[in-house]
Amino acid sequence: MADRKRGPVVLWIVPLMVGLAGFYRVAQSPNFAAYRTVDVVQLLGSGACVGAAFVGVVLMLRGPKA
Fold first, then answer.
1. What are phi and psi of 12, to 5 degrees?
2. Are residues 24 and 43 in the same domain?
3. Does residue 20 sit in the same domain as residue 47?
4. What is the pLDDT of residues 21-52, one digit of tens each?
5. In whole angstroms, how large is the CA radius of gyration of the chain?
6. Domain interval for residue 49
7. Global pTM?
8. Up-side HSE of residue 5: CA atoms within 13 Å toward CB?
9. Region of 39 on the Ramachandran plot (φ > 0 left; ψ -120 to 50 alpha; else beta)
10. Which helix (H) or strand (E) is 29 found in, with range?
């Protein structure tokens, strides 16, 4: 039963770590200060929507077989 609860936690931790690593890489770029806030917010919103769509597809494919 304990292994069953570990799965969802890993599904949140791994993408979070990958996302933070990517953000760190971008933040170290010399051009980081030139990014406009509105562009960053738009990219974050777009990424969240794409991520939600991928999660939906995965859940749809893993769902119960009717």
1. -95, -35
2. no
3. no
4. 888 888 888 888 888 889 888 988 898 898 88
5. 16
6. 35-66
7. 0.54
8. 2
9. alpha
10. none
